[in-house]
Every structure is written in structure tokens, then in C-alpha cells.
UniProtKB/TrEMBL annotation:
PANTHER family: RNA POLYMERASE ECF-TYPE SIGMA FACTO, RNA POLYMERASE SIGMA-70 FACTOR ECF SUBFAMILY
Residue span, RNA polymerase sigma factor 70 region 4 type domain: 121-172
Stretches assigned to the RNA polymerase sigma-70 region domain: 25-91
Protein's organism: Chitinophaga eiseniae
Transmembrane portions of the chain: none
Name listed for the protein in its UniProt record: RNA polymerase sigma-70 factor, ECF subfamily
Length: 180
């Protein structure tokens, strides 16, 4: 293994000398792994962290400070990488918990009762509509048909379809709003 001074290491990495980089990796990777493992407690994650540190060393070679010992730089970079990963995982966990809480809100028996009551009021109001008006409304809202499709199926004009929809919405709105 090459024994290089800090200046030689920095100059070699800055000039993208692969032999110097490999020598630095072989020399310092085991101790960086130990640092990473103390933080993340997982062999694969620790190896990933070390790889990230050395990848960033290679990418940012031109920014290396020749006054700072390379082992100190690598140790600090390893700790920072570990801390950043831990913070990222914590944010993911918090986000996942928030999603669980908001995605499936626990329905209380009271809210279920209100929902059933509202559904019954809606059905009752729908039943009170004139037959043709109710049929047009159901074809539009429940079956998802367009006004043109409804007009063709019922053999009525499109303006009649719009008139029935308007009437149905007005009557449903009045009944449901007055019930609340």
C-alpha cells in the first residue's frame, strides 16, 4: 500500500489520480465503516454510507482543502452522511405516520350514524322527484352518462335533460339543506 502525505493525497485526488484514490480508499474505508456502523447499526447501510462518502470525495475533489487532514475530512463526512440519512429516515417515519392518520380517519359511531342519516335523507328526497326527473338525474349522476347520451336514450331533447337536472338539483338542495 502506498504511504502518502496529506499533500500528496489531496493533490492526487484533485488531479483524479485513480491509484491515489484507491490507496486512500483501502487505507481509510475500514475506519469510516466503523464510524458509520456506530450510527446506523446495519452492515449494508454502513457500507452504503462509506461508498457515498468516497463518491462525494471523488465528485468534489477540486474543493478539497490541503490544510485539513484527509482522515479528519473523511471522518466528518461520514458522520454527516450518517446523520443526514438518520434525519431523512425520521422524516419518512413521521410522514408515514401522518399519512396513516389522515388517510383512514377513524369513523366514530356518531359520524357513521350521521352518514346513514344523510344517505336516507338523500334517498327520500330522490324518491320525491317526478319519475322522469329522477330517471335523468340518476342516469347523469349514478351512471355517469352525458346529457347527449341521456337525451338519446330517453328520446327527449338535450334542453329537457338540462331542465330536469336543474330541477332535481334545486329540489335536492332544498330538502338536504333544510334537514341539516
Amino acid at each position: 500500500m502506498l504511504q502518502l502525505s496529506n499533500d500528496e493525497i489531496v493533490k492526487g485526488i484533485r488531479s483524479r489520480n485513480k491509484a491515489v484514490f484507491e490507496a486512500v480508499f483501502k487505507q481509510f474505508a475500514p475506519s469510516m465503516y466503523n464510524i458509520a456502523f456506530r450510527y446506523v447499526k446495519d452492515e449494508d447501510d454502513a457500507n452504503d454510507m462509506v461508498q457515498d462518502v468516497f463518491l462525494n470525495l471523488w465528485k468534489g475533489a477540486e474543493n478539497l482543502d490541503e490544510r485539513a487532514p484527509i482522515n479528519h475530512y473523511l471522518a466528518r463526512a461520514t458522520v454527516n452522511t450518517c446523520l443526514n440519512r438518520i434525519k431523512k429516515e425520521q422524516r419518512k417515519e413521521v410522514y408515514a405516520k401522518e399519512q396513516l392518520l389522515t388517510a383512514a380517519p377513524a369513523e366514530t359511531s356518531h359520524s357513521m350514524l350521521e352518514h346513514k342519516e344523510l344517505e336516507a335523507q338523500y334517498r327520500s328526497a330522490l324518491d320525491k322527484l317526478p319519475d322522469q326527473c329522477r330517471r335523468v338525474f340518476e342516469m347523469s349522476r349514478l351512471k355517469g352518462l352525458s346529457p347527449a347520451e341521456i337525451a338519446a336514450q330517453l328520446n327527449i331533447s338535450i334542453n329537457t335533460v338540462y331542465a330536469h337536472l336543474t330541477t332535481a338539483l334545486k329540489k335536492l338542495r332544498v330538502v338536504l339543506i333544510n334537514k341539516e
